[in-house]
Specification:
The protein has helices at residues 2-28, 74-113, 118-146. By secondary structure, it is an all-alpha fold. Helix 1 (2-28) runs antiparallel to helix 3 and helix 2 runs antiparallel to helix 3.
């Protein structure tokens, strides 16, 4: 994933440079208005890049969440533990899926809107890097929970 994020950074930089060069060439040729037909959405008028934080992820349940009925036997206690382990595994899977979907949405927005919007590029790539760190944290929590 870090390599893909670096490639996106490089692509966004190349597109920004080529757009700037295109504008200079048009100006030199006296064709500044040639790009006028291309509508650009000002940064203030477009939807902001969505953000995701750990607080926005599904919660991982704890054995202490529900009132404990008082275990009559060791078997009751083990059954409750097995239930919570299954619930925690499902929550970890949902958390990873939410982060993955979020990252996919940002990449799709970046590709669909236009990679030539430097402000959007910076916002999107920054959020992708934050999301990747969040995904790594989720994977680490999941790994710790299994051990």
């Amino acid at each position: 994933m870090p390599g893909i994020l670096d490639e996106l950074d490089t692509l966004a930089s190349k597109v920004a440079v080529s757009e700037a060069e295109r504008q200079v060439v048009l100006r030199i040729l006296g064709m500044e208005d040639a790009g006028a037909g291309v509508e650009r959405t000002p940064a203030d008028d477009r939807d902001p890049v969505p953000t995701l934080t750990a607080a926005g992820l599904p919660r991982v349940p704890s054995l202490y969440d529900a009132e404990q009925p008082g275990y009559g036997t060791l078997t009751d206690m083990m059954a409750a533990r097995e239930r919570i382990v299954a619930q925690r595994a499902a929550a970890h899977a949902r958390r990873s899926a939410v982060v993955t979907e979020h990252m996919t949405e940002i990449v799709m927005r970046l590709a669909n809107v236009s990679v030539s919007d430097p402000a959007l590029n910076e916002e999107a790539l920054t959020e992708l890097r934050h999301s990747y760190v969040l995904w790594l944290a989720c994977a680490d929590e999941r790994r710790r929970d299994k051990s």
